[in-house]
Amino acid sequence: MTDNNLRIHGTWSTQWTFILAAAGSAIGLGNLWKFPYIAGANGGGAFVLVYLLCIVLVGLPVMMAEIMLGRRGRQSPINSMRRLTREAGLHGFWNIIGWLGVVGGILILSYYAVVAGWALQYVVDALTGEFQGTSAAASSQRFATLLADRNTLVFWQSIFMILTVAVVAGGVVKGLGVAVRVMMPILLLLLGVLLIFGYHEGDFAQAWSFMFSLNFEALTLKGVLVAMGHSFFTLSLGMGAIMAYGAYMPDNARIGSTVLTIGGIDTAVSLIAGLAIFPMVFAHPELQASEGPGLLFVSLPVAFGNMAGGLFFGGLFFILVTLAAWSSAISLVEPGVAWLIESKGFNRFTANLLLGTAAWVLGLGTVLSFNAWQDYRVLGFNFFEFMDFITASVMLPLTGLFIAIFVGWVMKEYVVREELATESPGLFRIWYPLLRYCSSIAVAVIFVVGLYEVLLR
Ligand code: PHE
What we know:
Blueprint: H1 2-9, H2 15-26, H3 29-41, H4 45-73, H5 77-87, H6 96-127, H7 136-148, H8 150-169, H9 173-201, H10 204-212, H11 221-234, H12 241-246, H13 255-283, H14 295-305, H15 310-344, H16 348-369, H17 383-410, H18 413-419, H19 425-455
Helix pairs in contact: 2-9, 2-13, 2-15, 3-11, 3-13, 4-5, 4-10, 4-11, 4-13, 4-17, 4-19, 5-6, 6-8, 6-14, 6-15, 6-16, 6-17, 7-14, 8-15, 8-16, 9-13, 9-15, 10-13, 11-17, 11-19, 13-14, 14-15, 15-16, 16-17, 17-19
């Protein structure tokens, strides 16, 4: 069975290929677009601290558990969980870990493709010189005009969806590693360029103090929930993505060092993105840190429009945003696709077509929430915000909690030890209690308290 599945889906050639693929999944719109805007909307420093704590105390331990589950199950998340529960004679309830992941992936992809579509439009704008000499006010106006134009939004959303589905249909393992290996260093370099520009031309000091001085009055309980949810979102956890990739991981690869590498790169990219964006925001009184989802798209054109070589850098930057989104989007569909192939007899092409279409249709709701439907609200959220909240702040943490409980408390300790036999014993001694006592309890408490605040607001 195991061998057969590895034959169907393939396996990563080396540990590095796995790291690159997982980093490709982790680094995406979550780092470049979402982290800065949610940090801005939640007052900065204190939010950033909670987010960093969640990465270390919850995200990394859960990531290790999730990769381990995938590698032991060796199939799509749904079937991996089935196999593990059956093997241990456990209740089928735990298969929910696989199911929530597959559904969550499609829901996330629905709005992810719309936002990636904005980046595609910005590639065109940057390269045609639209940003040249642009003012903050003109930049805000350009973004507002884009959001109001639903045909353009649907056009780019569709292009992005087709690109995503096309790669997954070709098989994830092939080619992804190469793409990521080329893309990541250039992305880091460009963020470096932006950082230097922000340092010289923007208000870097204020940006720094906004991100790192602890202003707890600005942080609400909902903000804490959002920060925790984002630690899952940015590391691609609680959705089967990392579990599905773990299934293609060689037996002897080290999970611990892999997790630390991915977590380190991912966090660095988010913080640098924040430090590149906020100096521009604070240098222009027309821009607000609490701008919302448009933050990246209104602040950076002002930087590119006023820097030497901005045409080139701007075009390249938005191409990279799209590529980063693309390598993440692939991992959003892969769990569902792998399951349809294994269990429902689909071929890769039709499985992709089905899931891609479902995500596309749902995405129309997000498109409309920025124009025709902007006044329809549930619990104060418009459609896009609701999708974001239900996935990032509810489904991912919930699945993460189930993973922590399953690996920490339900699976037999000797099985867990056996699967992690190649890891250093010191790491196991830190990780296992952390997962059992810290991650699971922290997620449960933040989840209940945060949700309580949202529902009774
Ligand atoms: N981690 C990705 C990002 O930060 C999003 C993602 C979430 C991808 C969950 C896969 C699974 O953009």
